[in-house]
Every structure is written in C-alpha cells, then in structure tokens.
Design brief:
alpha+beta, elongated, 2 domains, 3 strands, 5 helices, 3-stranded antiparallel beta sheet
C-alpha cells in the first residue's frame, strides 16, 4: 500500500462543481461531482367567462357580504346579454342582406325577361332569345354556385358569427 492510498481525496471547487482527486497507486483519477437542481413548475389554466371556483371563493370574502363577487357576477350577466344581442343583430343583418340580394336579383332577372318579351313582341325574336337565354343561364349559374361547395378544399373566409 502506498502513502496516498489511505489518504482522503483532495478536493477543489470549480464552476462545474466539485472535483475530487483520488490516488490509486501510481495513477490518480479525477471524479467530477456535478450538483444539479430540479425546478418543478405547476400551472393551472382556467378558461371561461368567470374566474375559477377557488378564485370566486376568494372574491366572495372581499368586501361587505361578498359585494365583489356580486359585481363580478353582474358584469358576467351583462356581458352575456350584450353578446346575445350582438349575435341576434348579426343574424338579422345577415338575413336582411341575403334577402335584399335575392330581391335585387329577382328584379334584375324579371326586368331582363320583360325586355326579352317586349323585344319578341316587336319583331326582334333573335335579340329576345339571346337576352332571355343569357338571363336564364346567369340565374341557374347563381343557384348552382350557392349550392355547390368550393373546390380544392378552399373554404370561404369565416363570418364573424362562425368564429364564436
């Protein structure tokens, strides 16, 4: 046995942790002890119009007889009513917009058919046939375009009502 075998290992510190030098006979081995730390992070996620139940319970303890909680609930009710009114208005506006476009198209199509009839009665059958055929084809094209889904998977941009 050599003198260094029974001696305790030599220690020194480095930025990477402690380094121990252990002598084994004529050779010395350096063992690096790296200190690590583990950080545990816990996160709670709540999604909704109101705070989580634990937060509501904490709010109920603030103020006289939970007046802060009552204010939060009143704001949530008011917000819900406003959202409902806004959605209702958007539906009515979409309905009237579609109805006005349909009526405008019918007036335009009826006017073209009336022009074709007038032309046919005044000895212009060729022009009347062109106007009537064009009007019918455009009307059918509009109906088909409203019914068929778009090609290539391209969806029309969503309306504001669809996102909610």
């Amino acid at each position: 046995m050599t003198d260094s075998e029974g001696a305790p290992p030599k220690k020194y510190s480095s930025p990477m942790g402690e380094v121990h030098t252990i002598s084994l006979g004529k050779e010395s081995v350096q063992a690096r002890l790296v200190q690590t730390s583990q950080v545990v992070h816990t996160q709670k996620l709540h999604v909704g119009p109101l705070p989580s139940a634990s937060d509501l319970e904490a709010y109920s303890k603030i103020g006289k007889d939970g007046e802060v909680l009552d204010l939060i609930l009143a704001m949530a009710r008011k917000n819900n009513e406003t959202q409902n009114k806004t959605a209702h208005r958007a539906q009515w506006f979409a309905f009237f917009s579609d109805l006005s476009r349909t009526i405008t198209g019918l007036i335009f199509g009826g006017g073209c058919v009336l022009v074709a009839y007038t032309l046919a009665m005044h000895d212009h059958p060729y022009i009347a046939g062109v106007v009537a055929t064009t009007t019918v084809l455009i009307g059918l094209g509009v109906l088909v375009m409203r019914v068929l889904p778009p090609k290539d998977g391209v969806q029309p941009p969503p309306q504001k009502n669809d996102e909610q």
